[in-house]
């Protein structure tokens, strides 16, 4: 039985018509009383005239083998049929429209005598005012919001796959701009100085979660322990780093800063720092050439020479050694916070080329246990969710390395229901992984079946092209280590592979057979490139860095030689104690008898320097 649609076209209604569907269990024919009979013809007033130029868009004719397509109306909310125009003389209804299933949903009319006639071909009308209103809609959307709402996809050659950012609409390189802050100072290079107000608000939010730095700023501001210090820094430029830089300035230091990662810079924060008078050279989405140019601009300034280095990854130290080795005659020390940078320092020391004392902040307890472990435990999930919207339950995940970063990643993924495998070269860390309930494997044993691969070793060539070729379709590949050397991304930039940009920091690398992997941040640090990290944890690291700078800068000559040192345990404990009030935590104090029994000072340090 067929449904029938009866159209009552009311003569006194000009711009609207109502269609009423009448469902009947059995209906052989329909009687329409008191309505004159008039069959529809191609000359009916329902058919627009051919001379209505600019108003009519021809609809392609549908054949019996083709399902007619319905074009959506331009103006939403308009209930009038598209074929009705003002001042149209309304015809009287004499037929019933029905859908013939044999014609793939085509429209037909049932006449009073029971015969079936094909409905006339109707043309769509787009009103001029509707088109104009549609064109008034905004066409430019910031890439950041676009990447979250609309998956922007395009296919690029392997040579240009890296050249994208998610910053503003202005694609002019900051190096080609002349920018000045409100005070007329132009000694900086950032994306857009107009974003300073937004950056200032982010810095103010970060200050609320960085109690130790704010306490240090308040306690030591009168003493100015860094008076005369000229600190050149190369770290991630985020709101948390801004709080550190402003704290160093409050303690008496002058600062010049560049970014240690081409994707982690928060442009609005860099703008706020530049507006505040800081010499900042960084923006999100730098090229490799931009990266080294920014470091050089940061270091090479006539009439200004640094006497302290704060580095994250060793690139700044490497650049000064390579380009300006004479600067080390006036540099008092280096503070390094990453595994990669510390490794470079130990190599220089072993070769006898380290000509100033260096402080290894990475291996301090506060950095290892809090920044590396607890920070990564939260930020790994955040980075993966923001970029891929992946569900972790039931996924097979390969974590390469079971150091503090690996431990944090594994704990988070296991808690979300993932099946986690671990690779490790150190028998002690390997045993820890086994005792924590993870299966220890070699990468080539499970590479074909895992859904996600995460590197966090600090090494190079952990995931090489051979493993990338063997991965399953849709496998997500990312890095939680500082450097981009762990995944062999360079081997993927070959003509036979296609790079497809999905959204900011997300690329599909497609093989000739159609297999694709999802590469995040081009193998660079995932959490700071694709998301954010907990501010409170960074407060611990930043306070440790500040104390290390104060220690090296004020140390009497001869205390530290040309070697790599660990932060004194007393300072580690002091950093931790500054954060305890946040939790309303109360330390138990040793009695004199207890302190004597343990052979400790009542005020610490409570652990030997070798404790980790």
TrEMBL record:
Keyword annotations of the record: NAD, One-carbon metabolism
Biased composition, class Low complexity, residue ranges: 147-157
Region described as Disordered: spans on this chain: 35-109, 121-188
GO cellular component, one term: cytosol
Sequence ranges of Basic and acidic residues compositional bias: 49-60
Pfam hit, one: AdoHcyase_NAD
The keyword NAD is annotated on this UniProt entry: yes
Protein name in UniProt: S-adenosyl-L-homocysteine hydrolase NAD binding domain-containing protein
Reported cofactor(s): NAD(+)
Alphabetized Gene3D superfamilies for the sequence: Adenosylhomocysteinase-like, NAD(P)-binding Rossmann-like Domain
One Gene Ontology biological process: S-adenosylmethionine cycle
């Amino acid at each position: 039985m067929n449904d029938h649609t009866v159209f009552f076209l009311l003569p006194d209604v000009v711009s609207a018509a109502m269609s009423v569907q009448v469902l009947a269990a059995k209906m052989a024919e329909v009687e329409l009383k008191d309505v004159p009979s008039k069959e529809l013809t191609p000359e009916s007033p329902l058919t627009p005239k051919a001379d209505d130029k600019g108003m009519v868009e021809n609809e392609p004719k549908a054949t019996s083998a083709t399902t007619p397509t319905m074009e959506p109306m331009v103006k939403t909310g308009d209930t009038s049929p598209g074929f009705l125009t003002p001042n149209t003389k309304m015809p009287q209804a004499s037929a019933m429209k029905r859908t013939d299933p044999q014609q793939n949903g085509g429209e037909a009319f049932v006449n009073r005598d029971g015969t079936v006639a094909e409905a006339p071909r109707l043309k769509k009308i787009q009103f001029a005012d509707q088109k104009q209103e549609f064109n008034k809609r905004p066409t430019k959307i910031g890439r950041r919001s676009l990447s979250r709402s609309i998956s922007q996809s395009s296919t690029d050659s392997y040579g240009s796959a890296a050249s994208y950012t998610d910053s503003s609409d202005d694609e002019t390189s900051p190096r080609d701009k002349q920018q000045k802050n409100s005070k007329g100072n132009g000694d900086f290079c950032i994306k857009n100085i107009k974003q300073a107000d937004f950056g200032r608000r982010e810095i103010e939010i970060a200050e609320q979660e960085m109690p130790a730095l704010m306490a240090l700023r308040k306690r030591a501001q009168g003493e100015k322990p860094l008076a005369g210090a000229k600190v050149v820094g190369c770290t991630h430029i985020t709101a948390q780093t801004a709080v550190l830089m402003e704290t160093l300035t409050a303690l008496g230091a002058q600062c010049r800063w560049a970014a240690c990662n081409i994707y982690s810079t928060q442009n609005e924060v860099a703008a706020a720092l530049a507006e505040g008078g800081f010499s900042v050279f960084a923006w999100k989405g730098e090229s490799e050439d931009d990266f080294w140019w920014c470091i050089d601009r940061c270091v090479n300034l006539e009439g200004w020479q640094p006497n302290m280095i704060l580095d994250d990854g060793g690139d700044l130290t490497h650049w000064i050694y390579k380009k300006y080795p004479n600067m080390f005659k006036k540099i008092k020390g280096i503070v390094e916070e990453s595994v990669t940078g510390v490794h470079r320092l130990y190599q220089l020391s072993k070769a006898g080329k380290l000509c100033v004392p260096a402080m290894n902040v990475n291996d301090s307890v506060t950095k290892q246990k809090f920044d590396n472990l607890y920070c990564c435990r939260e930020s790994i999930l955040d980075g993966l969710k923001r970029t891929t919207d992946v569900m972790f339950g039931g996924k097979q995940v390969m974590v390469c390395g079971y150091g503090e970063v690996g431990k944090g990643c594994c704990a988070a993924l296991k808690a979300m229901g993932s099946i986690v495998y671990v690779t490790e070269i150190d028998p002690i860390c390997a045993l820890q992984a086994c005792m924590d309930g993870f299966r220890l494997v070699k990468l080539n044993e499970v590479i074909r079946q895992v859904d996600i691969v995460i590197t966090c070793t600090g090494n190079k060539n952990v995931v090489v092209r051979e493993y990338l070729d063997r991965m399953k379709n849709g496998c997500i590949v990312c890095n939680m280590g500082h450097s981009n050397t762990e995944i062999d991304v360079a081997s993927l930039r070959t003509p036979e592979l296609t790079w497809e940009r999905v959204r900011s920091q997300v690329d599909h690398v497609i093989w000739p057979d159609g297999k694709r992997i999802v590469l995040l941040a081009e193998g660079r640090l995932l959490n700071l490139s694709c998301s954010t990290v907990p501010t409170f944890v960074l407060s611990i690291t930043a306070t440790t860095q500040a104390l290390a700078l104060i220690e090296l800068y004020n140390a009497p000559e001869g205390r530290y030689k040309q070697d790599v040192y660990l932060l004194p345990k007393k300072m580690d404990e002091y950093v931790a104690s500054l954060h305890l009030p946040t939790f309303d935590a109360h330390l138990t104090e040793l009695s004199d008898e207890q302190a004597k029994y343990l052979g400790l000072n009542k005020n610490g340090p409570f652990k030997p320097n070798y404790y980790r």
